[in-house]
Write a structure and sequence with these properties.
The complex is a heterodimer of chains A (about 250) and B (about 575). Chain A has about 250 residues and is of the alpha+beta class. Chain A has a single domain, classed as Methyl-coenzyme M reductase, gamma subunit (Lambda Exonuclease, Chain A). Chain A is about 30% helix and about 15% strand. In chain A, the strands form two sheets. A four-stranded antiparallel sheet of chain A has the order 2-3-1-4. Chain B has three domains: about 90 residues, Methyl-coenzyme M Reductase, Chain A, domain 1 (Alpha-Beta Complex), CATH 3.90.390.10; about 160 residues, Alpha-Beta Plaits; about 240 residues, Methyl-coenzyme M Reductase, Chain B, domain 2 (Up-down Bundle). In chain B, strand 1 and strand 2 form a beta hairpin. Chain B is globular. The chains are: A alpha+beta (about 250), B mainly alpha (about 575). Chains A and B meet through helix 5 and helix 8 of A and helix 17, helix 18, helix 19, helix 20 and helix 21 of B.
Chain lengths: ~250, ~575
């Protein structure tokens, strides 16, 4: 029987959503143009060439190396792109993704990525065009709700704060706003003003966010109620503890 | 367990989040509301920030060089885009400005560390044996009293043997002194009370008997060098300063020759052979000698804090005071300043000792344990539940989920602990301390700590900062391993233990676990009876029975520190 990846335990909608995020089989909900993406990431001007840190690999005369032969370089590495970042903040009020599941989604489904996971934010570093692929995937799919998730390179405070009345996650730098029923971003990741308002579309309704989220909450799907996940955590914990004794 | 308890944090959060403070306009609403209005009032909303801004302007005018200016924040977007709110010190009614819990702004916090760093314990018995056997000098209670009178002149910086000596001004070093303690009641009776830490008086009877039995007929000096000396030098200076003054005092008190070979024997015996530092010397890469915070084991910290002798019947309270002290010293001062820099560590640390959120979690656990395990969280040794994996899993899981649900049911609690590292500290400290209380086993508590980290991460899909991926995922593997450089009893682990050296927000919790295991059993001490007795001294400027209250007094500017220099600077 062919191996089928299982990703994550649990019988609840949250567990199912976690499996979706990890597998990469997520629903596409919106379009973000390449120029708009470039604008909000803030690493280069839309339409400009990718700055590079070395010549294309094909021109570099690389040494003989079996690993190089086995592993094909990513497009960004081939071209010599700089390593740049995309960083998301996800609200604890039923944002679709969470830092660890963004990390798992990136690490499992994309090559050449270096994810970093914190409590309030999650960063992926990669060669610039490779990073953009990850960023676009996460922005355009059900992994993100424009009201409950946002791009924040710095000053990330907000994931755990109460929501403002308009439901747009608190942002000290006010990068996103609700205008005419859609969420627009008028500053880039690090809060510099940009030339246009980038439209990320309508926020998810509270019901939709609750349905798509990967965070357990007592007022939605309580962690306490997902017995299989808790049992699995206990198993991991016991095995890691027992390994300290180096069992034969 | 049905959760019908009134939350211990409820009143604190109601005052903090539904009442106006300064001009922050936070009047109204409920602490369970998920939505709020953000007025983005900046620093103008907060009296302390306004005061600081004014001071910054005055300083710039005076020195002709700009300094503190809140408009430098985020390119002109100052702090205060959300409401700036004060906090309650847990276990007290003291409401304080958050800024005043930075140790730079808090004299009590500084003094706590001063009082630890300037302390050394030095044995007397080897010196007395050398005097008697090598020099034929009789040592009696009278000679010991005389020696202590000489030493309390010399230790602050008074001359005792040589002529034309420079001395320190007594008013600058009035916090410096030495007392002694012994497990020998007969000898203690003969010691002038001003020089004695009276174990019978300072400890409950049961603890006093245990301490005296452990100390036996040995005699120890509890010495505190001047705060101003310790601040000017470092922790490693403490034993050196003490050693020099001890040597001179012995020579003076016992009329000895300053040059004969026998005095060299005495010097070693009196000055070096029986020295106990509060903190071990750190490896060369840390470049710190003894008596610096990175070398203070969690067991030593549990013994330095004295709540166990004044509130022994409430072991959870004992652990909570150790959390507060440990988070302040290990996070705010050690990791936050010695090992790193900046101001962020205060945010991590204060979550564990403000607004009663951790207190609520731990006292919930106490009720849970007492209901399920027949009073195992009460003080005692016969009531403990066996430390098995099932017990660790049960207590740590219930504790962690209870704490997580508090954050979910009370968005203001979540907002108060707005960083995952804060929440991780609080949840794991509650789980670990509760497991230790129930089992009387610190390493079982540590195991509960790590399980809490796992559960927290899975429940919320997030944990703390990057480092948590390492330290809190691999920690379970060495919890019960005591192989060299891999594991130790929690009492002997410390801030520089492998993987703990960058554990922001953790170390106060580990100290609390060490404390909880022993307070839960009603032990008189955690790891070192000498340290427990040394700090059982009401003369110390910092009250080690109530560190959290002391931090509150510091924040409210009610705390009187030692080592002040007003005598030698222009009057203002």
């Amino acid at each position: 029987m062919a191996y089928e990846a299982q990703y994550y335990p649990g019988a609840t909608s949250v567990a199912e959503n976690r499996r979706k995020h990890m597998s990469g089989k997520v629903e596409k909900l919106r379009e973000v143009s390449d120029d708009d993406l470039t604008l909000v990431l803030g690493h280069r001007a839309p339409g400009s060439d990718y700055p590079s840190t070395h010549p294309p690999l094909a021109e570099m005369g690389e040494p003989e190396c079996s690993v190089r032969e086995m592993v094909e370089a990513t497009p960004g590495a081939k071209a010599g792109d700089r390593v740049r970042y995309v960083q998301f903040v996800d609200s604890m009020y039923n944002a679709p993704s969470t830092p660890y599941f963004r990390t798992y989604a990136a690490a499992i489904n994309f090559r050449g990525v270096d994810p970093g996971t914190l409590s309030g934010r999650q960063v992926v570093e990669a060669r610039e065009r490779d990073m953009e692929e990850v960023a676009k995937f996460q922005l355009e799919t059900e992994m993100s709700c424009p009201a409950l998730a946002s791009l924040r390179g710095a000053t990330v405070h907000g994931h755990s704060l109460r929501l403002p009345e308009d439901g747009i996650m608190f942002d000290m730098l006010d990068r996103c706003r609700l205008e005419n029923g859609v969420v627009i971003m008028h500053k880039d990741q690090v809060g510099r003003a940009i030339d246009k308002k980038v439209d990320f579309g309508k926020p998810m309704s509270e019901e939709e966010a609750a349905k798509r989220t990967t965070i357990y909450r007592v007022d939605n799907v309580a962690f306490r109620d997902d017995a299989e996940v808790i049992e699995w955590v206990h198993t991991i914990f016991e095995k890691r503890t027992a390994y300290g004794f180096k069992p034969e | 367990m049905a959760d019908d308890r009134k939350k211990m944090f409820q009143k604190d959060l109601e005052i903090k989040f539904t009442k106006a403070h300064g001009d922050n306009k936070m009047e109204g609403g409920e602490i369970t509301d998920k939505k709020v209005t953000y007025y983005r009032l900046g620093v103008d909303q907060n009296p302390r920030k306004v005061e600081m801004r004014k001071a910054g302007q005055e300083m710039a005018d005076k020195r002709g060089l700009v300094g503190y200016n809140p408009m430098m924040h985020c390119g002109g977007i100052p702090l205060g885009q959300r409401a700036l709110t004060p906090s309650f010190i847990s276990g007290t009614d003291m409401m304080v400005e958050s800024d005043d819990l930075h140790y730079v702004n808090n004299a009590a916090m500084q003094q706590m560390w001063d009082d630890i760093r300037r302390t050394t314990i030095v044995g007397m018995d080897m010196a007395h044996e050398t005097l008697e056997k090598r020099l034929g000098i009789e040592v009696t209670p009278e000679t010991i009293n005389h020696y202590l009178e000489v030493l309390n002149h010399a230790l602050p910086g008074g001359a005792v043997v040589q002529e034309h000596m420079v001395e320190t001004h007594p008013a600058l070093v009035d916090d410096c002194y030495c007392k002694i303690f012994t497990g020998d009641d007969e000898l203690a009776d003969e010691i002038d009370p001003q020089f004695l830490i009276n174990i019978n008086k300072q400890f409950p009877e049961e603890q006093a008997e245990a301490l005296k039995a452990a100390i036996g007929k040995t005699t120890w000096q509890a010495a505190h060098i001047p705060t101003v000396v310790s601040r000017t030098t470092d922790g490693a200076q403490t034993s050196r300063w003490m050693a020099m003054q001890v040597g001179m005092s012995f020579i003076a008190a016992y009329n000895m020759c300053a040059g004969e070979a026998a005095v060299a024997d005495l010097s070693y015996a009196a000055k070096h052979a029986g020295v106990i530092s509060m903190g071990d010397m750190l490896p060369a890469r840390r470049a710190r000698g003894p008596n610096e915070p990175g070398g203070i084991s969690f067991g030593h910290m549990a013994d330095i804090i004295q709540t166990s002798r004044v509130d022994a019947e409430d072991p959870a309270h004992v652990a909570l005071e150790v959390v507060g002290a440990g988070c302040m010293l290990f996070d705010q001062i050690w990791l936050g300043s010695y090992m790193s820099g900046g101001v962020g560590f205060t945010q991590y640390a204060t979550a564990a000792y403000t607004n009663n959120i951790l207190d609520d979690n731990l006292y919930y656990n106490v009720d849970y344990i007492n209901d399920k395990y027949d009073g195992a969280a009460n003080k005692g040794t016969d009531n403990k539940v066996k430390a098995t994996m099932d017990v660790v899993k049960d207590i740590a899981t219930e504790s962690t989920i209870y704490g997580i649900e508090n954050y979910e049911n009370y968005p203001t609690a979540l907002e108060d602990h707005f960083g995952g590292s804060q929440r991780a500290t609080v949840l794991s400290a509650a789980a670990g301390s509760a497991t230790a209380l129930a089992t009387g086993n610190g390493n079982a508590g540590l195991s509960g700590w790590y399980l809490s980290m796992y559960l927290h991460k899975e429940a919320l899909g997030r944990l703390g900062f990057f480092g948590f991926d390492l330290q809190d995922q691999c920690g379970a593997t060495n919890t019960f391993s005591f192989q060299s450089d891999e594991g130790l009893p929690v009492e002997l682990r410390g801030p520089n233990y492998p993987n703990y050296a960058m554990n922001v927000g953790h170390q106060g919790g580990y100290a609390a676990i060490a404390s909880a295991a022993h307070a839960g059993r009603g032990d008189a001490w955690a790891v070192n009876p000498l340290i427990k007795v040394c700090f059982a001294d009401d003369m110390l400027p910092f009250d080690f029975t109530a560190p959290r209250k002391e931090f509150g007094r510091g924040a409210l500017k009610e705390f009187e520190p030692a080592g002040e220099r007003s005598l030698i600077i222009p009057a203002r």
